Amino acid sequence: MEYDAPKVDEVYDALTHPTRREILRYLSDLDAPTPLPLLGEALHERLSEAGDETVDERALRVALVHAHLPKLDDAGLVDWDGERAALSPGLAGLRISPPVVDGRFDFTVTHRETSP
Fold first, then answer.
1. Rounded to the nearest 5°, which phi and psi values hold at 89?
2. Among 73, 78, 82, 44, which Cα is nearest to 61's?
3. Does residue 1 belong to any structural domain of this protein?
4. 88 CB contacts (<8 Å, ≥6 apart)?
5. Strands 109-111, 94-96: parallel, antiparallel or unpaired by DSSP?
6. Of 7, 47, 66, 112, whose CB neighbour count within 10 A is largest?
7. Contact 84, 36 (CB under 8 A)
């Protein structure tokens, strides 16, 4: 699979929202496309565990479909198939490291090894 190189500004813009960074963290642990309902449930759980009790699962799914996933897809960070409502990592297995606990954040981007 070939990818067009995303514009740097699009990537930075896509990474500005914490929910979009959490989507990428979630996908970095998976090897297969993720259906939207599963992604919505997992993100709702993760955001709730992180202390955001105002997160409504239905509102989160709407935001995923209409804002977060299209923005990540446009930047090349995910492959979002709206017709099948399935999502997979873009850029040949992009991974984002989690934040460092000592108060500094490390959003280093690395590529997962893939078999030919």
1. -60, 140
2. 44
3. no
4. 27, 30, 32, 33, 34, 78, 79
5. antiparallel
6. 47
7. no
Residue 29, domain CATH: 1.10.10
Number of domains in the chain: 1
Per-residue pLDDT of the chain (116 residues; tens, 9 = 90+): 455 555 778 888 998 998 998 898 888 877 788 889 999 999 999 888 877 767 788 899 999 999 999 999 888 888 888 877 778 776 544 555 444 444 444 455 444 444 44
| AA letter at 13 | D
Q: 10 Å Cβ neighbour count for 78? A: 25
User: Which of these, 116, 115, 114, 95, lies nearest to 106 by C-alpha position?
Assistant: 95
Decide if 37 is inside a domain. Answer: yes
pTM score: 0.70
> Is 3 contained in some domain?
no
Domain hosting 105: range is: 8-111
Tell me which amino acid residue 90 is.
G
